[in-house]
Design goal:
This protein has 245 residues and is an alpha/beta fold. The chain has nine helices and ten strands. It binds adenosine-5'-triphosphate. Keywords: ATP-binding, Nucleotide-binding.
Length: 245
C-alpha cells in the first residue's frame, strides 16, 4: 500500500514569477525511506507544507495512508518535523515532551516510557533536566524529532533534519531514523540538499528543481541510468549544475 500519494500539486506564491511547485506527483510505498532532494528554493518546504496541510495547494490532492490529508485521521498517522523548532526554550526536554505527549492524549505511564526511551536513544539522557535555552542547535533538533515521534506516526516527514547540526547530533538523528524504519516499519520522507547523506540513508529518492519533479527511483537505479559515480553526479548530469549553485 502507498503511504503517501500526491497528485498534480501546483502552487504559486502571490507576486512570484515562477510557480514554487509545478504539477508535482509522487507515490511513496509504506516502509520506504525517501529523500526529496533539491537545491535551495527547489520547492521542498512548500511540498512538505502542502502534504501536512499547513498551506493549501492551488491544485492537486494528497492522500496519507489512503485518506485525504484533510481527514482527521491524518493527525495520528502523519508526523512532521519542521525546520523551525516547535519547542519551549524555558522548559527542559522532559517538560517539553510531557507537554506534547499530553496534547496527543498519550496516557501517563506509556508517555513516560516513551519519553525515557527517546531521550536515551537520541543521546539526551544527561541533559533531560536542563532548560533548552542552553542547548546547541543539534540538541534542539533531536528534541524536535523526539516531540514529533512521541505519537508513533506511521509516516514521518522531516524538513532538512540534519542541516546545521553537529556531527554527533547528525549521527544520532540518522541512526534513529534507520532504527525507526527497521523496527517499526515507519515510512520516512525527508528533504535534503545533502546528496551523499541521502545516498546512504534512502532506498528511494525524488529529485526536484524549480518546482518540477525531475527524477524518481532508487539511488542505484539513478546512478546506473545516468552512468554516474554517485547522486551528486546524477544531479549534475540531470541539471547541468551542482546542487549548491
Ligand atoms: N511565503 C512565500 N512567499 C513567496 N515566495 C515563497 C514563499 N515561500 C517560498 N517561496 C518561494 O518558493 C520557492 C520554493 O521555496 P521552498 O522554500 O519551498 O524551497 P526549498 O526547496 O524548501 O528551499 P530551502 O532549502 O531553501 O528551504 C522559492 O523560489 C521561494 O523563494
Amino acid at each position: 500500500m502507498e503511504a503517501l500519494v500526491a497528485e498534480h500539486i501546483s502552487k504559486s506564491y502571490p507576486g512570484s514569477e515562477h510557480p514554487a511547485l509545478d504539477n508535482v506527483s509522487l507515490s511513496i510505498q509504506q516502509g520506504d525511506i525517501v529523500g526529496i532532494l533539491g537545491p535551495n528554493g527547489a520547492g521542498k518546504t512548500t511540498l512538505i507544507s502542502i502534504i501536512c496541510g499547513l498551506i493549501r495547494a492551488d491544485s492537486g490532492k494528497v492522500f496519507v495512508m489512503g485518506e485525504p490529508n484533510s481527514s482527521p485521521q491524518t493527525k495520528y498517522t502523519l508526523g512532521v518535523v519542521p525546520q523551525e523548532y516547535a519547542l519551549y526554550f524555558d522548559m527542559t526536554p522532559q517538560e517539553n515532551l510531557r507537554y506534547f505527549g499530553k496534547m496527543w492524549g498519550i496516557p501517563g505511564k506509556l508517555l513516560q516510557e516513551r519519553i525515557d526511551m527517546l531521550l536515551q536513544v537520541l543521546g539526551l539522557e544527561n541533559v533531560k533536566n536542563k532548560k533548552l535555552k542552553t542547548f546547541s542547535g543539534g540538541m534542539k533538533r533531536r528534541i524536535n524529532l523526539a516531540a514529533s515521534i512521541l505519537n508513533n506516526p506511521k509516516v514521518l516527514i522531516l524538513d532538512e533534519p540534519t542541516v546545521g547540526v553537529d556531527v554527533q547530533s547528525r549521527a544520532a538523528i540518522i541512526d534513529y531514523l534507520k532504527k525507526l524504519n527497521r523496527e517499526q516499519g515507519t515510512t520516512i520522507i525527508y528533504t535534503s540538499h545533502l546528496l551523499a547523506e541521502a545516498q546512504e540513508l534512502c532506498n528511494q529518492v525524488r529529485i526536484i528543481e524549480q518546482g518540477k519533479l525531475l527524477e524518481t527511483g532508487s539511488p542505484d537505479e539513478l546512478i546506473q541510468k545516468y552512468e554516474a559515480a554517485n547522486l551528486e553526479e546524477v544531479f549534475l548530469k540531470l541539471t547541468g549544475k551542482t546542487i549548491r549553485n
